[in-house]
Automatic annotation (TrEMBL):
<dbReference type="GO" id="GO:0038023">
    <property type="term" value="F:signaling receptor activity"/>
</dbReference>
<dbReference type="InterPro" id="IPR053211">
    <property type="entry name" value="DNA_repair-toleration"/>
</dbReference>
<dbReference type="InterPro" id="IPR032675">
    <property type="entry name" value="LRR_dom_sf"/>
</dbReference>
<feature type="signal peptide">
    <location>
        <begin position="1"/>
        <end position="27"/>
    </location>
</feature>
<protein>
    <recommendedName>
        <fullName>Leucine-rich repeat-containing N-terminal plant-type domain-containing protein</fullName>
    </recommendedName>
</protein>
<keyword id="KW-0433">Leucine-rich repeat</keyword>
<dbReference type="InterPro" id="IPR013210">
    <property type="entry name" value="LRR_N_plant-typ"/>
</dbReference>
<keyword id="KW-0732">Signal</keyword>
<dbReference type="GO" id="GO:0005886">
    <property type="term" value="C:plasma membrane"/>
</dbReference>
<keyword id="KW-0677">Repeat</keyword>
<dbReference type="Pfam" id="PF13855">
    <property type="entry name" value="LRR_8"/>
</dbReference>
<dbReference type="InterPro" id="IPR001611">
    <property type="entry name" value="Leu-rich_rpt"/>
</dbReference>
<feature type="domain" description="Leucine-rich repeat-containing N-terminal plant-type">
    <location>
        <begin position="30"/>
        <end position="68"/>
    </location>
</feature>
<dbReference type="Pfam" id="PF08263">
    <property type="entry name" value="LRRNT_2"/>
</dbReference>
């Protein structure tokens, strides 16, 4: 009986060690936890919205995050209203999201986003994030420059761009699987819009109240 118990105990220790070797000692991938804390340090230095993101805990259990139950990789990230307003406008470095290779859904809505650093736009993610299906950029201050940087996301199914400063001088190209597109409250010109939509063969739902 005692021996059996010891055996179980040793097995548990062994499994814990294996977990450590795989970089999953906190229940989520080490590189993803580091990436999340890097983003937190940048957008919420005063621990207002992301205060529950603490170094020594399982990042899959943190608010605003969903992991795949088997791979333990982050599949959903929501930064809605997460950025400290006192920091002013946000020029994004999209490379921050490179660690999240299995990401399916990214929400960056309501964050004062004005654009991306040169050569650090969404195009840097297109080859790394091969599963991204949903991108929410609603309620920011983004302009046409970022539209062309989205072209590489061939897996994207839903794109939310309402309440920004798009005029449509650049079209959306390459989004061949895009089914849902929200464009409300921008400055799109109708003629440009019609032209741009021709390049989206899978589109099913479009909203564009201006
Ligand atoms: C993971 O498991 C939890 C609880 O068992 C469940 O609520 C959740 O829907 C699962 N998530 C996925 C993506 O399967
Ligand atoms: C963007 O982030 C990447 C990865 O963290 C870093 O290597 C790079 O220097 C950053 N670039 C800028 C302009 O901040």
């Amino acid at each position: 009986m005692m021996v059996k118990k010891m055996g179980a105990w040793m097995l548990l220790v062994l499994l814990t060690l294996v977990g450590d070797w795989c970089g999953r000692s906190y229940g989520c991938l080490k590189e993803e936890r580091i990436g999340l804390l890097e983003i937190k340090a940048l957008i919420d230095p005063n621990h207002l919205s992301l205060g529950h993101w603490v170094e020594s805990s399982n990042c899959c259990e943190w608010p605003r995050i969903e992991c795949d139950n088997t791979t333990r990789r982050v599949i959903q990230l929501s930064f809605r209203c997460a950025r400290d307003r006192s920091l002013g406008d946000w020029v994004l470095n999209a490379s921050l999201f490179l660690p999240f290779k299995e990401l399916q859904s990214l929400d960056l809505s309501s964050n004062g986003l004005v654009g991306c650093f040169e050569n650090q736009g969404f195009q840097v993610l297109a080859s790394g994030l091969r599963n991204l299906e949903e991108l929410d950029l609603t309620h920011n201050k983004l302009n046409d420059i970022i539209l062309s940087s989205l072209g590489g996301f061939s897996t994207l199914k839903s794109l939310y761009l309402s309440n920004n400063r798009f005029t449509g001088s650049t079209g959306l190209n390459g989004l061949r699987n895009l089914e849902i597109l929200y464009l409300n409250s921008n400055d799109f010109k109708e003629s440009v819009l019609t032209e741009s939509l021709g390049a989206l063969p899978s589109l099913k739902i479009l909203t564009c109240k201006f």
